[in-house]
Hints:
Blueprint: E1 2-6, H1 8-12, E2 16-22, H2 35-42, E3 53-57, E4 64-71, H3 78-93, E5 99-104, H4 111-125, E6 145-149, H5 154-179, H6 187-201, E7 204-208, H7 210-215, H8 219-225, E8 233-239, E9 247-252, E10 254-258, H9 278-293, E11 298-308, E12 320-322, E13 328-330, H10 338-350, E14 356-361, H11 365-371, E15 376-380, H12 383-396, E16 400-402, H13 409-412, E17 420-421, H14 429-438, E18 446-450, H15 474-484
Parallel strand pairs: 1-6, 2-4, 2-5, 5-6, 9-11, 9-14, 10-11, 13-17, 14-18, 15-16
Antiparallel strand pairs: 3-4, 7-8, 8-11, 12-13, 15-18
Helix pairs in contact: 3-4, 4-5, 5-9, 6-9, 8-10, 9-15, 10-14, 12-15
The protein binds ligand BES and zinc ion (2 copies).
Residues 258, 260, 335, 337 line the site of one zinc ion (ZN).
Amino acid sequence: MKILVTTSAEASKASALAVLVPEGVVPDVRGAVGKTAQTLTRRKEWKGKFRDGLLVYGAGGTERVILVGLGKEKEIDAERIRRAAAIALKQFGRLEQKTLGIRLQSSHVAAVDAASAIAEGLVMASYRVPTATKKKQDDPYRAATVRVDAGTHRAAYESGVARGVAIGEASNLARDLGDLPGNVLTPTKLAQRASAMAKGAGLTAKVYRKPDLERMKMGGILGVNLGSIEPPVLIELSYRPRSFKKTVCLVGKGLTFDTGGISLKPSANMEEMKYDMCGGAAVIGAMAAVARLKPKVRVIGIVPSTDNMPSGSAQKPGDRLVTASGLTVEVINTDAEGRLILSDGLHHATTFDPDYIVDLATLTGACVVALGHDAAGLYGTDDKLIQMLKKAGDEAGDHAWPMPIFDGYKDDMKSDVADMKNIGKREGGAGSAAWFLSQFVDGFAWAHLDIAGTAWGQRNRDYVGGKCATGAGVRLLVRFLESLG
Ligand code: BES
Ligand code: ZN
Ligand code: ZN
């Protein structure tokens, strides 16, 4: 799919024209429809309620006109535009037309943000889960060209659409990685994909392999990896602009498949645990977007990656680990493995002396119970950072909700034989997991996003939702990083 920014006239000349219209407003379909259709679009029966669509025959070279309602003007925000653009694209995909013009008939949202939202909606709606069927499945959007009507905001639309395309594609990269099964996307393959992306985008990529991890004394990653025949990796991607004031480390859980290990998970829905690397995918996606958008902030993306398997060599409940930080952990439950690999990832982050550390992880089922699928759990040690992330998430339609780390969790995780156990009580399980992580950030300003509920299977939002990965975290991270420079 090609997305271009054009004049109104050029957009109208597309073989299908989509107009996103506020409620109660007569659609601007100048020259694109004949008399009959004109009356139809003026008729009161189509009111322009949010998500309502109307398909009419066009005229003068425009085969079809797609109207999508935005609802009341004052309720229009970037999320509604994203969704309306996605609805338009999907309707277009059913028409077998080649070019789609898209016009937003509202200036309620600033032009740059509106243009970005249109592009994000289009690109994310065009995402398809990677499949492997004998008969090739065709992509209805592959040969399509979309002409986005910039109206009188040419410059703002140029930069907004470029931003939206970068963010949309970065989100789809994260979704692709998330949706790939555990046998296809092993830690080694994840590292290859991340390195290939970095090479194409002009980022520096380093992949630490098992001997490196041994030298770095990363007992957390190595402990989780003991049961596996796939070697572990730690991926490090760096972006360094010529001038910057802040350094941010992003750390993502890259667990390519979580069986639970010896503390084996029940088999129902276990296939979903291929998504346990979505924190890592969000970090890789955010780095891809950063490479294109070039904010004035230094960013290092760190993804510890392994799978978590039960076998004769697997770590066992009661085992003790020495993490890279020197802190020791008594492994009570081998299924609480995300925090073990993150302990080493977070410690690695501290070696960059960053201003902020943000980690993302499908860390706990308890977080899904607490917040459902509508927002990530947002934990941390720095109120300013938490507020920045909350705001970035709200602005990006990629929500996170602040949650507490109570002192008491410490008591639940006390060990008689090590610095801490790897689990606390069942109650408050998302918070005690966050407390555990907080032990490895060495006083740096840190926040943690538990994306267990948001990384896949969200409710339908037109450009995202259903039984596939969502790219959760990518849009939030990009907005946050942009706000720093
Ligand atoms: N990857 C899981 C968390 C998870 C579970 C995410 C379900 C999404 C849906 C994590 O490694 C895990 O198994 N956590 C345990 C922790 C427990 C043993 C303290 C959990 O949440 O049950
Ligand atoms: Zn687990
Ligand atoms: Zn896990």
